[in-house]
Amino acid sequence: MDKFKRMLLASGVIAMIAGFGTAAQSADMIGNCELTGQKGSIPIANPAKAGQLTVEVSLPAPIWWNGDTPEAIKDGMEYCMAAEIAWRAGYDKMEVVNVGWDPLVTGQTSDFDLALSQISITDERKKVVDFSIPYFYSDIGVLVRTDNPVDEKTIKEKTVGVQQATTGAAFATDTLGLTNIQVYPDQGDMFTALRAGQIDAAMTDTSITLAEEVANPGKVIVIGQYKTGETYGALYPKGSANNATIDKIIQSMIDDGTMSKLADKYLAAVWGKDPAKVPYFNP
Asked: What is the pTM of this model?
């Protein structure tokens, strides 16, 4: 578990819009998230929508956001991270907005305070959006069906699925030089194609592939991963006046162990394995 904790730094146009306000169930809860910080300790003066924190995500994102629609989600790693940010910013109400992945990472969405969706920080994306300090390290995992194993040599002969506009897609083509690629608009379509035998492997962040393995026990497995040194960050609207303040909140959550506790509860405990123990493939 210690290796995993080190991964968390210092201890880890709109396709569909649907929102909901989650009032605190008690003095220290939003949804099913138990809040540990002091409410309003690092206030945000001018949120995108008055009286609440507005958070974007591209669903589905199992374990990170437990549910397929904003209305259904009450917990998960990033959901509870967002809830804690809202609380420390001074709000007991949070609106979750589901958006398309490509519009999100290309700066085409608006009227939100931050997005949390396992988004890798890249220089290309920084041209149109801003990022928080990193809160999670992630490499690129290779997910295959259990009845169709793939290794670091045979993968170059296989049909590999990637998600449009992700770092996994760029890695598959630019670094690995794969040519038999199928591109999907979202994770769900890619993983469905894998289970249906339409592709031999799916490549995306190791954390995301591990979540898919848990969701489909005995059917798919993370057979390996590639080291990339990627980090996740909260995505901000370009030039927002609140970005530095939310950074302070995230840093406070790293410093006081909140991020590590969330990772233990929602990631490591569910995966049942340390991501660092997934074998590394050579490019």
From this structure: 0.74
| Calpha distance 2→44 (Å, rounded) | 33
What the chain holds in terms of domains, given with CATH numbers, is: 2-135+233-277 (3.40.190.10), 138-229 (3.40.190.10)
pLDDT in tens, 121-178: 999 999 999 999 999 988 999 999 999 989 999 999 999 999 999 989 999 999 999 9
Q: What is the pLDDT of residue 270?
A: 78
Cis peptide before 60 (omega within 30 of 0): yes
DSSP 142-203: EEEETTS---TTGGGGS-EEEETTSHHHHIIIIIS---SEEEESSHHHHHHHHHTTSSSEEE
Angle at 145 between CA 139 and CA 148, to 5 degrees: 110
Q: Which two tokens stand for residue 21?
A: 């306000």
Do the strands 220-232 and 114-115 form a parallel or antiparallel pair, or are they unpaired? unpaired
